[in-house]
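User: My advisor asked me to double-check a structure prediction for Alpha/beta hydrolase before group meeting. I don't want to rely on an old file, so could you generate it fresh from this sequence?
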Amino acid sequence: MTGSIEALWISASRSLKAFDHPLMGYLAGQTKLAQWEYCQTQDEGGSVDTAIALLHDYLQHHDPVHLIGHGISGIIALLYSRRYPEQVKSLTLLSVAAQPAVTWQAHYYVQRQLLPCSQTQVLGQMMISLFGRKLPYSVKDIITALRADLENAPSLHSLFKVGRLPQGGVAMPLLVCGSKTDPIVDPAALADWEAWFKPEDRQWQCLDGYHFFHYFHPQLVGEQILEFWQFQSARKSLLQLNR
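Assistant: Sure, here is a fresh prediction for Alpha/beta hydrolase from the sequence you gave:
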């Protein structure tokens, strides 16, 4: 096994990964951070189970790492952590609800079912929910990226069915982060995590930033993550001394 990395960023939304880069850059300057990316081909459907299997093929050759992911990438990290806890030192989830299937795509498909609007119109509405009025890119570029995410990212949902996943916690220390202005994974959806928290688990909410709060506030979010990792390392050392 190799201990060449300390933390691993899960990336399963290729068209939206630019919104992860500021936080990844901040963390990479403070720790040995690697990125693992899941990309399906045009001929295969997106599969969370396939992503988990491929992630394990990669991680089983490494020492346990801190896992981190946003949205569907966080869901993959969560499900992997439940299946292979021995490979994960801690888990950090960004914009992941206690009911993990609550994603921006789930909201999109519900609106498509309820509203007599085109895909472009619904994506335009979703864009405001995800970013607020202060858009980081042009309207056209964001809608194109969201449409690509619907087509290419592993999804639990479709126009015919909005899926669900088992709720619960994980064996390793857990940090759940979100935004007070996120209408997708709102404060109530984050608060529901507390039913599954262990003493070492934490929840933190950014004051604004909507669903992609980590893009708008990378240093603030990064400081919370690094403090959590450092606390868990110190806690582990203390427990070993007391044995």
